Automatic annotation (TrEMBL):
<dbReference type="InterPro" id="IPR013815">
    <property type="entry name" value="ATP_grasp_subdomain_1"/>
</dbReference>
<keyword id="KW-0648">Protein biosynthesis</keyword>
<dbReference type="InterPro" id="IPR021109">
    <property type="entry name" value="Peptidase_aspartic_dom_sf"/>
</dbReference>
<dbReference type="GO" id="GO:0046872">
    <property type="term" value="F:metal ion binding"/>
</dbReference>
<dbReference type="Pfam" id="PF08443">
    <property type="entry name" value="RimK"/>
</dbReference>
<keyword id="KW-0547">Nucleotide-binding</keyword>
<dbReference type="InterPro" id="IPR011761">
    <property type="entry name" value="ATP-grasp"/>
</dbReference>
<keyword id="KW-0689">Ribosomal protein</keyword>
<dbReference type="GO" id="GO:0005737">
    <property type="term" value="C:cytoplasm"/>
</dbReference>
<keyword id="KW-0479">Metal-binding</keyword>
<dbReference type="GO" id="GO:0006412">
    <property type="term" value="P:translation"/>
</dbReference>
<keyword id="KW-0436">Ligase</keyword>
<dbReference type="Pfam" id="PF05618">
    <property type="entry name" value="Zn_protease"/>
</dbReference>
<keyword id="KW-0460">Magnesium</keyword>
<dbReference type="Pfam" id="PF18030">
    <property type="entry name" value="Rimk_N"/>
</dbReference>
<feature type="domain" description="ATP-grasp">
    <location>
        <begin position="271"/>
        <end position="454"/>
    </location>
</feature>
<dbReference type="InterPro" id="IPR041107">
    <property type="entry name" value="Rimk_N"/>
</dbReference>
């Protein structure tokens, strides 16, 4: 293929050319064209296979600019082969092979590329003779016969906004792999080409040290995940949030942070957070001394009132005391059980209804109105309530967004009561279920969640700290 011919029908290459690999998110690479090498090679590090056996994939990082390791582009691709390759110094290496589209000048064509660490090499890519088409001629004495590109592109927003949707490895922390929400997260992720693994939170354990903190599971160290979606049950909140903190320590993106889950799960702590951020809510009081019962009731405006366990979920542990005497009896019973609880104003005008706003990435993506069954004051669907889509007001939208932001939750179900003096936040749920709201609204909530995850884990351009080499 080496020729000095000037036939205009031939695609002419020099021994050095600029190219791009758009499907890997690499808009500019300088490659050495070497007809003496049979196989093409791409610089890669942290090479890790993943995915099902019948559809294996590989993910890896690329430092596209020689000598500039602060810029790392994460990539992924299906594995097409694993091949023994002999390097120029005679060493044999077993490499993963991927297929990708190469763009050079006005031409694009598919090539096979092996992955290997070329960190010590002057070129991040080697273009071997298998990658060359029949009408391509390599002029060994020339360089850059095709248009030159620039590394400057890695410092523009285009690297992030136009990055390809790469395959992600996602962990769902859940002890209930077959429930609706977990099953939907797995199915939707796989439908989008990702690898989604359900991890039983209670089976995780941690190696805590300064150099290499790790999360282990069922006898093995867990691999690196691009994202973790926590579905932490109330019964294991302390241990579950410890596992999330460990993932945060190793640098994994967690949809909801550990501190936000902890604060939202403790009703007393949650109401203190809402109060600190001046978010309207039902008047709430808490005390531990039995001598304070009378004053405690008066603080929330007398009966009827709500007595609620601090760690209640799905409406369990929530009691309506319709008279002062009933309130005293319930409080006395809870204290006798040494249970932590709070007393809360009953918003009668809500009439057994509330509004659940689902907030993802600072936006209300869906809302439904839940109505209690006859004779019941709790509107939770688990307590027999019904749900339908509802149009919310701007004030309700704003308070839902503010509530999720107060807990730093990227995904939250915010429950709002419609009272005579405006919307009041009843609860912020850090592990909202999707079944009721997807069926009530007809919206694909999980798709919205993945769109946000994909945007957040895309490679971000680095700020230029030194002169970038042009060639």
């Amino acid at each position: 293929m080496t020729d000095s011919s000037t036939d205009q029908t031939d695609f002419r290459l020099g021994w050095e050319e600029w190219l791009s690999l758009p499907s890997l998110g690499l808009p500019a690479l300088k490659a050495k064209v070497d007809t003496g090498a049979r196989t093409s090679a791409l610089h890669a590090f942290d090479i890790e296979p993943f995915g099902p056996i019948n559809r294996p994939k590989v993910r890896f990082g690329v430092h596209p600019i020689p000598g500039r390791d602060e810029l790392s582009i994460p990539c992924s691709a299906p594995i097409v082969d694993r091949r023994e390759v002999t390097s120029s110094n005679g060493d044999m290496e077993l490499r993963y092979v991927i297929r990708t589209e190469v763009h050079m000048g006005n031409r694009s064509w598919p090539i096979e590329v092996t992955l290997t660490n070329r960190g010590a090499m002057a070129y991040r890519m080697l273009l071997g003779r298998q990658a060359l088409m029949d009408d391509m001629l390599v002029a060994a004495a020339d360089r850059c016969c095709q248009p030159e590109l620039s590394y400057d592109v890695y410092h523009t927003a285009d690297v992030r906004t136009h990055a390809p949707r790469r395959t992600l490895r996602v962990a769902v922390l859940s002890r209930e792999p077959k429930n609706y929400t977990t099953s939907r997260i797995v199915a939707e992720g796989e439908n989008r080409g990702h690898v989604v693994e359900v991890i039983d939170t209670s089976l995780c354990y941690m190696a805590i040290n300064a150099d290499s903190p790790e999360v282990h599971y069922d006898g093995n160290r867990l691999p690196r995940y691009d994202a973790v979606i926590p579905r932490i049950g109330a019964s294991i909140t302390p241990y579950g949030t410890a596992v999330i903190r460990q993932f945060e320590t190793v640098g994994t993106y967690c949809v909801n942070p550990a501190d936000g889950i902890t604060a939202s799960r403790d009703k007393l702590h949650a109401h203190q957070v809402l109060a600190r951020h001046r978010i309207n809510m039902p008047v709430t009081a808490f005390a531990s001394s039995p001598k304070d019962t009378q004053h405690l009731i008066e603080l929330v405006g007398n009966a009827p009132l709500i007595v609620k366990l601090l760690e209640s979920t799905q409406g369990k542990g929530v009691v309506l005391a319709e008279t002062r005497k009933a309130a005293e009896s319930v409080i006395s019973a809870f204290r006798g059980l040494k249970a932590n609880f709070l007393v809360q104003q009953f918003v009668k005008e809500a009439a057994g209804e509330d509004v659940r706003c689902l907030v993802i990435s600072g936006k209300v993506v869906a809302a439904m109105k839940r109505s209690a069954s006859e004779g019941e004051f709790r509107s939770n669907l688990h307590q027999g309530g019904t749900a339908k889509m509802v149009r919310i007001t701007r004030e309700e939208r704003d308070i839902a967004i503010r509530a999720a932001k107060a807990f730093r939750l990227n995904m939250a179900g915010v429950d709002i009561l419609r009272s005579n003096d405006g919307p009041k936040v009843l609860e912020v749920n850090s592990s909202p279920g999707f079944e009721g709201i997807e069926k009530a609204t007809g919206k694909n909530i999980v798709e919205t969640l993945y769109q946000d995850i994909e945007k957040r884990v895309r490679p971000a351009p680095v700020r230029r700290s030194a002169t970038v080499p042009k060639d």
